[in-house]
Design brief:
444 residues, 23% strand, five-stranded antiparallel sheet, four-stranded antiparallel sheet, elongated, alpha+beta
Length: 444
């Protein structure tokens, strides 16, 4: 009997152990299923970025509107464990009434606040995510159809382009500019209205990535008193490995071009691989010139695209002595204007006058004039040109002919090449000079 009892007891224990092991296996299987199910959801979230819900401001509160734009990263990219995760970055862009910014993995790479109203177009490198170019067009105040179209045409294929609005950017945004932006894949640019906040991210030569906007209440010619919340877009950006760089040749000039093109874009054909624009000019000497050794100053600020346009023309003008040119830059972030000066192998000086607009301009002029004559103590005059001028081909010839007047007549303060009233219906004789009491500036 004892033996039988022991056998029965042993069988019961075995069954209990079997049941326990079975429950353990089932529980483990359920946990694993839940775990992998959640992992799949996480991967799905990481692989697809859906734009935030649109918010339309209503008097009674916020009405949420679904937005169908989404950006997908291929499933292979998400699940491939060999993928270098550092090459995939989170790009966040926001527009609004007082603030617009772009961040890469929470690091802000572009930021503007009040005082920079209008349409912001920022070009990012598809290799690094860094800012290659940026422009602000005050499309509330004036139409910039030609400028926007030209700027976008200069952007290289494959670049990431981010469009942002800050404050108001639609009042003077004309149909042509809207159509140009729509050609890059925007579905909503033609509907953007006064005070709307809008973000659009696309790749030049490829499909758009994402688009987001936040609408005001009133439409159809009525300006709302309410500003909408900021519009924010998120997208995972897969960085592209750099391919073979352009073969710009060898030597110091080629190296300057290579350095510039590695960090800047949208400057015409300067960085074109097959037919780059020249960056060295040897203008013809001006016969009988008496201003060859006069210092030439270019007054610049944080407007590098104006500076580039001006230099590209001015450095070709007959009679220009490249060695006598100095660019004086007044800005807080001068890296891009300085990079242009290095590209063209020009001397430059940075100023940073922290005061109001009028005060800043006058201080910039005062410092520039003093430093120029300190640098050239034997000079009797200097030529001053502002960065946004379109100079004519006879500019140096004009200054050479009028230089004796300035030297011989003590009542003359300067000779100017700019006439605020120089309209074709007013100026009949192109060879006539006017003596005036005001200071025209710009080019003198």
């Amino acid at each position: 009997m004892r033996k039988i009892s022991r056998v029965r007891r042993s069988g019961i224990i075995d069954r209990i152990l079997q049941i326990f092991l079975t429950l353990t296996v089932v529980t483990t299987a359920i946990v694993n299923l839940v775990y992998f199910s959640n992992m799949k959801k996480v991967d799905s979230k990481q692989g697809t970025v859906i734009s935030d819900e649109l918010i339309r401001v209503q008097d009674s509160g916020h009405e949420k509107i679904d937005f169908d734009t989404q950006v997908k990263i291929s499933e292979a990219d998400v699940l491939d464990t060999s993928l270098d995760v550092k090459k995939r970055v989170l790009l966040t862009a926001q527009s609004g009434k007082q603030h617009a910014f772009i961040s890469i993995d929470d690091a802000v790479v572009y930021e503007k606040k009040e005082g920079n109203r209008g349409m912001h177009i920022i070009v990012l490198s598809q290799h690094t995510g860094s800012v290659m170019a940026s422009r602000v067009f005050d499309t509330y105040l004036a139409s910039y159809d030609k400028e926007i179209s030209e700027f976008l045409s200069f952007v290289s294929q494959g670049r990431v382009i981010v469009f942002l609005t800050l404050d108001e950017a639609s009042f003077s945004l004309k149909q042509h500019a809207r159509e140009v932006i729509a050609s890059y894949g925007s579905k909503h640019i033609k509907k953007i209205y006064i005070r709307d906040a809008w973000v659009f991210i696309t790749v030049k030569g490829d499909k758009p990535l994402t688009e987001k906007f936040s609408l005001t209440t009133k439409r159809g010619g009525v300006i709302s008193d309410v500003w909408p919340p900021p519009a924010t877009a998120h997208v995972y950006l897969q960085l592209v490995p750099k391919e073979n760089e352009c073969n710009f040749g060898f030597g110091e000039e080629a190296e300057r071009r290579r350095n510039f093109c590695s960090s800047h874009d949208a400057y015409g054909k300067i960085c074109n691989c097959s037919h780059p624009e020249p960056i060295y000019f040897s203008p013809k000497p001006l016969k009988g010139s008496n201003i060859t050794d006069i210092p030439i100053v270019i007054m610049a600020a944080e407007r590098p695209f104006y500076l580039h346009r001006m230099l590209d023309v001015f450095l070709r003008v007959p009679g220009v002595n490249h060695a006598m040119i100095t660019v004086y830059i007044d800005c807080e972030q001068c890296e891009e204007p300085e990079a242009l000066c290095k590209l063209y192998n020009l001397k430059f000086v940075r100023h940073n006058t922290n005061c109001g607009r009028v005060c800043r301009i006058s201080n910039h002029y005062r410092k520039t004039i003093k430093e120029t004559f300190d640098m050239h103590p034997g000079a009797k005059a200097m030529i001053i040109l502002e960065e946004d001028l379109d100079v004519s081909n006879d500019l140096m010839d004009y200054f050479s002919q009028t230089y004796p007047l300035l030297i011989s007549d003590p009542s003359l303060f300067c000779v100017s090449a700019w006439n605020d009233q120089g309209y074709s219906h007013v100026v009949q004789d192109p060879a006539q000079l006017y003596r005036i009491n005001g200071m025209p500036g710009l080019g003198w």
